[in-house]
Specification:
The complex is a heterodimer. By secondary structure, chain A is mainly α. Chain A is 67% helix and 7% strand. The longest helix of chain A has 34 residues. The radius of gyration of chain A is 21 Å and the shape is elongated. Chain B is built from 15 helices and 12 strands. Chain B folds into 3 domains: 229 residues, Rossmann fold (3-Layer(aba) Sandwich); 86 residues, Cytochrome-c3 hydrogenase, C-terminal domain (Cytochrome-c3 Hydrogenase, Chain A, domain 2, Irregular), CATH 4.10.480.10; 35 residues, no CATH class. The radius of gyration of chain B is 28 Å and the shape is globular. In chain B, strand 5 and strand 6 form a beta hairpin. The chains are: A mainly alpha, B alpha/beta. The complex binds iron/sulfur cluster (2 copies).
Chain lengths: 232, 374
């Protein structure tokens, strides 16, 4: 089969920027998170009043978490109200999406049959992104539940912030059995994020090589290739 | 303090200075200012014959009574006995047998709706095997089961105060697999109790709760586990004397090491201070001289519900603790790493298989052209 490919714009600049904000903050969160869980890499030297190894790493963890969460929320907004392309439908596991995603999964292992060219997120990606987002969301809620446990319910702004977080995250304490359970869930979910991110990266590289549609360039310069003409 | 009237004449064995010291301590624990100290003194003194307190023992080790009687200067114990009118306390009262039972009934009748019940110990609800088949029969006192006694005595109480983790949430006897079906008093009776958990509880907190009741006629506000906020709204980790070493990244990694001598943070030795709400460092034990982390031992989370199940082993960080994963016990790290390993192996197998294979419908690309999208 002979095909004609054409470069089309598939991702707006804001979506690309947000993707990389999420990527780098996730890397930072995983590294700092592993240190906080088990601080064995290095320890502070000198007097305690002038050494802040753990304090700085925790600060980095919190700042990265805020960056990720804000990027996440903006991305959520864009999914519905983008002026370029609102893509929330593609991330939902509707029945048709599910069927096509299942077909793609089969194709990835057998290379049999034809793959439709999708300009926007294809159904398999859509559903896996959806799952990865749910994992990140779980990390967000358990993370804030741990964070707010150290904030006193004082009057004033701090208290309002703490109360808001309590309202948003206290269900995790009930669900996972108090702070120790939430702590372990937060740590376990880290591995879900790591393995999920790994599979995502592998999948995109594989697609780029095997399907010849420049999928990776979509998240860098916003363009990917699409078949416009197919001839026998 | 000159305006304080001297009501202490009836306190034969206590000098005024010690008494005011206790009042000041209670004021600190309750988060009140200096100006409240005389008020506390007045409330304690005016309460000379009230409220009547009934102290019940269930499944426990009497550690909380010991703590209540022994801490601070001995005069405080006397003060508490003289002023709070503890009418029934199985360990310390002189009466025994029928006389004791009479005393209990009498106290309950005379102070109906006004007396305070202090509970120590968990209440077993399971039925022991054997012919008796008595529900809650693992604990009987004077031919009554623990749950019967609790129901009877707590019915007409003004308030029920649980001291220690056992009365509050079941404690060690409620640990998995919990053979006697032990639960805390609140759960056993389905009522709201004020809980002063810890192992043992710090008597300053229970006295402060009672003082709060005497001063304001109401019980202090609590968190969702029934713990008064004045003592349980801050984590151990946030008031810890070793916190600066935590923030510095300086940790003890071996007992008796140089780091341990320097007083480094016990996080890596399994300290559960970051998961535990209590005021140990502020109130302290043993005449307010020391507390576990000060003495070099990590917090075990003794003021948290189910701490025997969720915080143990006590000398391991939570990451090292095994949790059930569908039948197998493994640490979160092991399962997570196995998962990540499986992902990597899966990807490698996939790559090896698919990169050596041709697509069924192979494409030949004849041209690429760039066009602005949208
Ligand atoms: S010793 Fe425990 S409570 Fe104290 S700072 Fe270290 S981890 Fe926190
Ligand atoms: S430091 Fe922790 S384990 Fe020790 S008494 Fe206080 S709450 Fe209990």
């Amino acid at each position: 089969m002979v095909i004609l490919l054409e470069m089309v714009k598939v991702k707006s600049a804001s979506v690309r920027v947000l993707h990389w904000v999420i990527f780098f903050s996730t890397v930072s969160l995983v590294l700092t998170g592993l240190y906080i869980a088990d601080p064995y890499w290095f320890s502070g030297t000198g007097e305690a009043y002038q050494t802040f190894v753990m304090a700085k790493i925790r600060l980095m963890h919190f700042l990265s978490a805020i960056a990720l969460d804000v990027a996440f929320l903006i991305r959520l907004y864009i999914a519905f109200f983008s002026i370029f392309h609102a893509d929330w439908r593609e991330m939902l596991p509707f029945s048709e999406n599910l069927r096509e995603a299942w077909n793609s999964f089969g194709f990835y292992w057998t290379l049999k049959g034809e793959q439709k060219d999708h300009r926007w997120i294809d159904p398999f990606d859509g559903i896996t992104f959806h799952l990865l987002h749910l994992v990140l969301l779980l990390q967000l809620f358990t993370g804030f539940a741990l964070y707010v446990s150290g904030i006193e319910l004082s009057p004033g702004l701090t208290g309002i912030w703490a109360r808001t977080l309590h309202i948003a995250t206290d269900w995790t304490l009930v669900l996972f059995g108090g702070l120790p359970g939430v702590r372990q869930m937060h740590h376990f979910t880290l591995w879900l994020v790591v393995s999920g991110a790994f599979l995502h990266i592998y999948h995109q590289i594989w697609k780029t090589i095997k399907l010849q549609r420049a999928d990776i360039s979509a998240i860098i310069n916003g363009y990917k290739l699409m078949a416009v003409k197919r001839e026998k | 303090m000159s305006e304080v009237k001297d009501h202490t004449t009836f306190l034969t064995n206590i000098d005024r200075r010690e008494f005011m010291g206790l009042c000041a301590q209670i004021s600190v624990v309750l988060g009140l200012g200096n100006e409240m100290v005389p008020k506390i003194a007045e409330a304690l003194e005016a309460a000379a014959r009230k409220p009547s307190i009934i102290w019940l023992h269930f499944q426990e080790c009497t550690g909380d009574s010991e703590a209540f009687l022994r801490t601070t200067s001995p005069s405080v114990a006397e003060l508490v006995l003289d002023i709070l009118s503890i009418d029934y306390h199985e360990t310390i009262m002189a009466a025994s047998g029928d006389l004791a039972e009479e005393l209990l009934t009498k106290t309950m009748k005379e102070n109906k709706g006004k007396y305070l019940v202090v509970c120590e110990g968990a209440i077993p609800l399971a039925t022991p095997p054997g012919p008796s088949g008595l529900k809650g029969g693992y604990l009987t006192i004077g031919n009554k089961t623990g749950i019967e006694i609790a129901q009877e005595v707590c019915r007409d109480a003004a308030a029920v105060i649980c001291v220690g983790n056992c009365a509050s949430y079941g404690g060690v006897q409620a640990q998995y697999p919990n053979p006697t079906g032990a639960v805390g008093v609140s759960e056993a009776l389905g009522i709201k109790t004020i809980n002063i958990p810890a192992c043992p509880h710090n008597p300053v907190n229970s006295i402060a709760t009672i003082v709060n009741f005497l001063l304001l006629g109401s019980l202090p506000p609590t968190d969702r586990f029934g713990r008064p906020l004045f003592a349980y709204q801050e984590r151990i980790h946030d008031q810890c004397t070793r916190r600066s070493h935590f923030d510095a990244g300086q940790f003890v990694t071996e007992w008796g090491s140089e780091e341990a001598k320097k007083g480094f943070c016990l996080y890596k030795m399994g300290c559960k201070g970051p998961q535990t709400y209590n005021n140990c460092n502020k109130a302290r034990y043993n005449d307010h001289t020391g507390w576990p982390i000060g003495a070099g031992h990590g917090c075990v989370g003794c003021s948290e519900p189910k701490f025997w199940d969720t915080m143990s082993p006590f000398y391991k960080r939570l990451e090292g603790i095994e949790i059930p994963f569908g039948g197998v016990e493994a640490t979160a790290d092991k399962v997570g790493l196995a998962l990540t390993g499986a992902a990597v192996v899966g990807a490698a197998v996939h790559a090896a298989y698919t990169f050596g294979k041709k697509k069924e419908h192979d494409e030949r690309i004849i041209d690429r052209e760039k066009k602005e999208g949208k």
